[in-house]
Amino acid sequence: MTVICPSFTHASTSDMSIKSSDIRFSNDTFVAGETVRIYIRVRNLGDTDISGYIGFYSGSELINSSQVVTLVADGAYEEVWVDYTIPHSPSFNIRALVKGTSPQDTNSSNDEILTPLYSIIVDDDGDGVDDETDNCLNVSNTSQTDTDGDGAGDACDSDDDNDRLSDSVEDELGTDPIDSDTDNDGYSDADDKYPLDSSKHEEVVVLDLIPVLVQEVIPELFNDDQDSGNGADQIEEESELQAQDQDLESQTALERSSGSVLHVSPNASFVYTRENWKTYAFQSLAHLSTYSVLSWDFSDGSLSSLESVSHEFPSYGTYQVTLRLTDEQGVIHEDIQELTISFFHLSNPFVQIILGLLMVLLIVSIFTTVRTRVGKEAGNKEEIRNEVMEVKAVKKIKSVAKKKTKTKK
Fold this sequence. Notes:
By secondary structure, the chain is an alpha+beta fold. It has helices at about 165-175, 210-220, 230-245, 350-409, and strands at about 15-25, 35-45, 50-60, 60-65, 70, 80-85, 90, 95-100, 110-115, 120, 260-265, 270-275, 280-285, 295, 305, 310, 315-325, 330-340.
């Protein structure tokens, strides 16, 4: 007797699984604009090998899809990843989704995860300090040092010790940009005529330079033939009225330009003279007490914070010279003067080359003309000599012929 036993077929499963606890990032701090890598572990919980990939989303927008991986049945974890640029928003989260499985995933309950919200740091200067607390928003200032406590960090503060002298000016003077009284004599560097010598305590006297400069100094620059004693007396008298025998000529760098044409800017904020082809001297006429920051912009990439400055422009062309004065309230006052430096000047190397070539051409032309004339004169002499020889030959022939004729007779 044959006994037939029923057979049972086991259904195979393929289950690519992800969990929210298995997602991680390459950085723990999320800074707007920076790129991080998002990793997630995947595993096959089924009894059949399976392949597929993970799609990563920020909200409903696909960030990117991972590489395709093949997972063996009930095997170890594999890790996949994508790169993500942190958005400029308060927070974000990530949604991951199992996709493209082969064979088809038989369990969809573990195919999707959603992370919690992550806070974003907005740090436009990349110094690791949130813009909300950063005392220099556009300049890296990791230490957040603020020497004078004015709310602007030293990295972006033009006057770190708040003594009314900009850091660049203090560098040029040799004073300490983070100490308002470099020589510790009780006088602020801006008010101390000798900020590096504690044995001298003479205060800087601020004068009303504009009327005196216009009335006294400018005429002196135009008049070399005037009696220098009279001009000095006038300046001394005016100085006595303004600030106890202060010598104005020592306060302006333009005295070295005496005799040059002196120009006044459109808003009478500064004067300037031309020293040579492309070098000019500039002098601010502003009172020290009326501004906290002074800066020159020569529109050729060069800047200066000196009251009196000599500047050489790189080449011929048109430049805009701007004097900016920032007052205690942060208001900026500008005075702009346009300067044109001509190409045609004997100091211009290109003009020198052109003139040199013209001189060479002139010399060659003269040499060629002289040589041609000499050759022509030599040719004329040869021609005359040949003509003379021909005449002599003819005369000789005639003479011989006469002799033969006489002999025959």
